[in-house]
Amino acid sequence: AGGNVAIYGKSAVNGLTNPASLNPDGSAWAAGIFTVVGDNKNLSIDSGTGTILLDGVCVLTQSFGGEGIYLNGATLTSAATTGTAIMLNGDASAANYGAGTRGAGVTLVGWSNTQPIDISATGGGDISITGVTTSQAAPWNSGIRVASAGAGTTSISTTNGGDINLDSTYN
Fold first, then answer.
1. pLDDT at residue 55, as a whole number
2. Residue 57 CB: number of other CB atoms within 10 A?
3. Residue 39 class from Cβ within 10 Å (0-12 exposed, 13-18 middle, 19+ buried)?
4. DSSP assignment of the chain, as one string?
5. Mean pLDDT of 31-57
6. What are 103-162's pLDDT values in tens digits?
7. Which of 4, 9, 81, 143 might form a disulfide with 131, Cβ 3.0–4.6 angstroms?
């Protein structure tokens, strides 16, 4: 069985408002959807035969940057047999970035061997990842950023004929 899972997130306009959370220069960072770094803190969603949608928007107006979706260690699994089984939409294009700031529509980081990124459509459905940014700072000036830290791994896979579609846009 299973059911559809949809998570929507939108950052605060002014990013982090707690002065203790700001960077030393007073700038801030924010994300529409963010997973916490740390042992045994992985996001894990298994929708059975349902679909998974993560839709994150960053509208930060301070000077450092942010992401629409930032996943540090996550397992997303869907056995949907047709259509889009797993969809990630990250939009950081409305954020007001200045020179030297960073941000990506979707960032996927396999943080460690205990916090991998594993996105898997097991029933024949597709995976779609769309990221949009306006960031001016490399290497974060991409719609989709995939990375691994330490012993971390990042895996995006389909079985039974599903497609993987990546759409990365820099405005």
1. 97
2. 23
3. exposed
4. ----EEEEEE--TT----GGGS-TTS--EEEEEE---STT--EEEE-TTS-EEEEEE----SSSEEEEEEEESEEEEE---SSEEEEEEEE-TTS---TT-B--SEEEEE-BTTB-EEEEE-SS-EEEEEEEE---STTS-SSEEEEE-TT--EEEEE-TT--EEEEEEE-
5. 86
6. 788 988 887 777 889 999 999 999 999 998 876 655 556 788 888 777 778 899 999 889
7. 143
Of residues 147, 81, 92, 144, the one with CA closest to residue 115:
147
Give the whole-angstrom CA distance, residue 156 versus residue 69.
Answer: 16
